Records
---
Amino acid sequence: MLDTLVSVSELAKNLDNSDWRIMDCRFSLADVQAGQRSYVESHIPGAHYISLDADLSNSHIPGKTGRHPLPKKSDWIASVQALGLTPQTQVILYDDAGGAMAARMWWMLRWIGHENAAVLNGGWQAWQRADLEVNNIVPQAPAQSQADYSSLPTLVKIVEADALDSHQQLILDAREIPRYRGDTEPLDPVAGHIPGAQCSPYSGNLDSQGCFLSPEALQTKFSFGNTADKPVVCYCGSGVTAAHNILSMKIAGFDEPALYPGSWSEWITDPSRAVATGDEE
């Protein structure tokens, strides 16, 4: 069972393994069709395309939800069944953004109790660097799965806005430092961060080639002095890259943190919620 990362060499050995299923999660916030265009042009053989907007999110309701709200769990289970997945299927997820989008689906599979899911370390770029096989053949739609995911216990923890408390939790913001500080905000109408949150950009989980750091390096990155003393809650702009921090902390051997799914873009829909800027002392 692979439940965090898979190497390109291991995936290459299992391309014909009927128990493995590959998902191409490439997506760009700047051009929401770019990922699918890239997939149509070339992808890892056998991969199915998964869109952040169309498959991994519910509709955004401005002023009420974050930008990428989770779908209803029952709808997500139906989508997973439509992909022909069962809890025994080994799912491999990749993108071209260091795992930022793939980690979202990894987390969502764990949300419904599917443990056999792993992100391709280094993603599309690592596959290309290794000069491994690609094609543009769209695989046939799989047979509908009848797997009873509704009976499986979830493998994740969720904390909603009203339960966030920096005195009781270590709240980690996965965005880059300028957005956390409120120096700039390219996506949301209010800049800043949740009061008391610490900044731990997801980009810092990766090396110069877009592969995840070693477990030891990730342990250092996430050692805030009180990591072991408080439960950790991860958030970001819309609940996507926060999953990258969750995956990274799991790789590092920490207890799996909780996710605040709505994240910053939901937090700011309620004007009564406080906003902090600058650095936390």
---
Amino acid sequence: MTTAANVPTIKEDRILILDFGSQYSQLIARRVRDSGVFCEMFPYDIDTQRITDFGAKGVILSGGPESVHADDSPRINDAVFDLGVPVLGICYGMQAMAERFGGKVHASDIHEFGAATINIDGKSTLTDGIEDAAAKLNVWMSHGDKVVDAPQGFDIVASTPSCPIAIMADDSRYYYGLQFHPEVTHTAQGSALLGRFVHEICGCAGSWTPDNIIDMRIEQLKKQIGDKQVLLGLSGGVDSSVVAALLHKAIGDQLTCVC
């Protein structure tokens, strides 16, 4: 008998997204999946074991409505940084990462909500060659706090007149922070930045495509079922019809459908 404990798992490159409550969090997942990389999103406070067992090749920390100065504000689980994989913090995720590593986050006198142009002042693996105009990016801001001192080991890569650190980067550990939201369409190069992170920095192959997903599922079914016979109750709806099609590709005449 095949049990949950011995069902073969599908091995794909994967990105872990930790959600700090941003209204844009689902867009992060959408952009990553559109780039051909499997990802899952969980609340920021999932337990340490789940973070460890997920097998991420990289972690993205979403934005959120909180301030790192609040006593009960969300914090990043240290397990994220124990994984030894690249980490990208977006908006609040950047601020929480800066605070975690000894940087300084202050309330901004000028809150930025909407379109902005940032100046690329330095270099990083994340941004190299990505720009809208010479040394500039058109982005979407939505924040009240800002990082004013980057943590030790982080370089300042980009800024605006009211936000001294719009991008920070530690290329030695592959830790990056963006004060803006690359996941929204208003950030013109957002997909390029996320693609750079998941493909070139995290090393994800981009093979999570519809055709490959089907092939992986069929291979999983073959291993799980072996030479057993399968009886499927087929209602004629989309769900059971798809299951029937996949099972037939995997095991052929071992499948019997009952309508």
